[in-house]
Amino acid sequence: MQAEVFASTADMSRDEWLLERRKGIGGSDASVILGLNKWRTAFELWLDKTGQVPVSESASEAAYFGSILEDIVAKEFEVRSGKKVRRKKSMLKHPEHDFILANVDRMIVGEKAILECKTTSAYNLKEWENDEIPADYIVQVQHYLGVLGPQYKKAYFAVLIGGNKFVWKEIERDDELIEMIFTAEVEFWNTAVLGGVAPALDGSSAAEEYLKKRYAETESNKVIDLTAVNRERIKQYLQLKESIAELQLQAKELENQIKHEMKEAEYGFIGTYQTSWKSVTTNRIDSKILKEQFPDVYEKVTKEVQYRRFGIKEVS
Predict the structure, then answer these.
(1) Confidence band (pLDDT; 50, 70, 90) for 59?
(2) How confident is residue 183, by pLDDT bands cut at 50, 70 and 90?
(3) Is the Cβ–Cβ distance between 262 and 277 less than 8 Å?
């Protein structure tokens, strides 16, 4: 078995490509489903795949610039590795699961292998030191190798770090991991996307926005009895709020001690750390004066904002 063409990408615009990608699960989605992605949650992915967010918001700005620099990274890989690569101008699909897709950056000429091009911040240098490869990227290329078929045994990474450091590495095919990835993806697609069962709500801003829009209106004076599981949730919530307040107080204490040592200085240095305590001037509208001296203007620029405020208190 080998991959089949899902769609030609030769003349696709970026938005068209994003729309096609929404029709299935791609390699960058695999780590999200497995809970290995630190930038995106399964709930956010579900919102995207079910069309509940604009397609233009389904990819990050970092991913956008990564795609622009992809050609440069691929060419540098050719120079450093001595291998030749070619672009695959098509979106591929798994021969048995037509929603499992692959957008491979480059194919290695004369070798059953692929190249994944990456750009990353200098802050992530340690993730690529020695033999290290980030787990989410390992899952991504194993997803691709699984879609392409068992004849594809290897993947290469070419990474531009901080705009001035280049590394390239290789990784072997892992059939056990591929099976685990596809099992999770099939479950996610059938249950969450086709079945409409949302993954567990998380702490992301996307989940908050989803709840805000879906339950924007209240039924006046409506009261419900919460299910038993919420007793423990409320206890944990209040404990966390208390811990956060205590930690914020501790952080403020340390901040004040550092400020006291800095005195009139704008900057302080110790080892690899720099502190700053600078004067900042901003312009703000004094709403009280505006209302008193220019009531007509105040009336024109004031708008009513309605929202739902969440709170918990113990009642006897």
Answers:
(1) low
(2) very high
(3) yes
Q: Mean pLDDT throughout 156-185? A: 96
Largest CA distance in the chain: 78
Tokens of 41: 């949650």
End-to-end CA gap in the chain:
66
Q: If DSSP codes are grouped into helix, strand and coil, which group holds residue 135?
A: helix
Report the distance separating Cα 116 and Cα 133, nearest Å: 12
Q: For residue 40, what are its two tokens? A: 């995106």
Q: How far apart, in Å, are the Cα atoms of 111 and each of 81, 154, 170?
A: 13, 9, 13
d(CA 42, CA 199): 6
Distance, CA of 164 to CA of 20 (rounded, Å): 33
- Greater pLDDT, 194 or 213: 194
> pLDDT at position 148, please?
96
pLDDT band at residue 55 using 50, 70 and 90 as cut-offs: confident
Distance CA 223, CA 66 (A): 50
Give the whole-number percent of the chain exceeding pLDDT 90.
Answer: 65
Report yes or no: 50 and 23 within 8 Å, Cβ to Cβ.
no
Name the residue among 86, 73, 151, 148 with its Cα closest to residue 117.
73
Determine which of 89-103, 181-195, 213-227, 248-262 has the lowest per-residue pLDDT on average.
213-227
Neighbours of 163 (CB within 10 A): 11
Residue with tokens 């056990």: 176
Q: Does the pLDDT value for residue 210 go beyond 90?
A: no
The token pair at 25 is 């699960």
Q: Which long-range contacts (CB under 8 A, 24 or more apart) does 83-88 make?
A: 83/108, 83/109, 83/111, 83/156, 84/108, 84/109, 84/110, 85/109, 85/115
Strands 113-120 and 154-161 turn out to be: parallel
Secondary structure of residue 200 in the 3-state scheme: coil
Phi, psi of 276 (to 5 degrees): -140, 140
Burial 89-120 (b: 16+ CB within 10 A, else e): ebbbbbeebebbbbbbbbbbeeeebbbbbbbb
